[in-house]
Hints:
It is a single chain. This protein has a domain at 16-51. The chain is built from 10 helices and 16 strands. The chain has helices at residues 18-25, 30-37, 41-48, 97-107, 127-130, 146-155, 170-173, 189-194, 209-220, 242-245, and strands at residues 54-62, 65-73, 83-88, 113-117, 136-141, 160-166, 179-185, 199-204, 229-237, 252-253, 257-262, 265-270, 273-276, 282-293, 296-305, 311-312. Strands 3-2-1-4-5-6-7-8-9-15-14-13-10 form a 13-stranded mixed beta sheet, with no helix packed on it. Helix 2 (30-37) runs antiparallel to helix 3.
Amino acid sequence: MLFAAMDAPRFPLMRLPVACSQNVLCILRLTQLFEISLASKKSKDLVRSLKIKTSEFSLHLYGSYLSIQLRFCSRNEESNLKSYLIYYISYSHEMDERTFLNHLKFIFNTEKITVYFGWNFELFDFKSILEGRQDVESINFLNLNEGEGQRILNIFKPSKIYMYIVTKPRDLMIQNVDDLRANEMNISLEDLLIMNIKNLETRCSMVPAQVLNRFLKLWTRGSNLQLERLELDFQVDGGFTNEEIFNRIKTTQKTTVRYFKLVSGTRKITGGLDISRFDGTMATILLRRLGGFINWIDFEFEILVWHDHCIAKETDR
């Protein structure tokens, strides 16, 4: 500990003017700042006043094991090139896990957290830490059955979900989620039509051209009103043509450069085919052939919906 030597000379840190105390604290390591913040409410507020902010604040649950990871940008640089990592398991002798989590969030000026659910996470009593929290921005699942997923989503409502495999996506698709990404998902036309998700990105099994055509036709008539972006990566036996996907759908070839606003930033969009919804909202369809093996062709299907809040400028990048 920082003050382990009881006979060491005492330094009147808390008696100094605030600006002087802050100058002293600025030379200390992050672990030392944490230890000082435990001394009193005044020292806790003083550490917070340094306005050190995490670039990433995440909880990792593996079996009965909990770790909290904080990532910081260097305080001497404006870039993210240099980072510090701090790992804490549990300070049970000082406070319970929930209080500990809130303490770290407070002193390091953190608004949102990310939770990673690993193997056998159900062995950990995460409900006592996470229930009722409004600050969980995203959750990541390494391995999950649908029952556990629904139980977690009943405890708190993240805006972003990242999953490895989703075999029964129906209950997940009806959640009001801003961003859902999966490495693999068994998805049907019915799943696509009922989803409330704004941004969905996943690899899935073969999607017939007729399914994509039907989905686009229904979108032009008013389905999936809040959809902003959909990306499906899949394989097709022998491939398909634009005519199969856009059969009886009016399209316009775009050659101009446009900018689309995503959660992760602004993206430059070149080309694509535009279609129009009944209310005048435009969407751009991008089809990319990624390669393949023998007769199996890898395709990427993407739709970008140009809501007013999704339209960006080059200067927004």
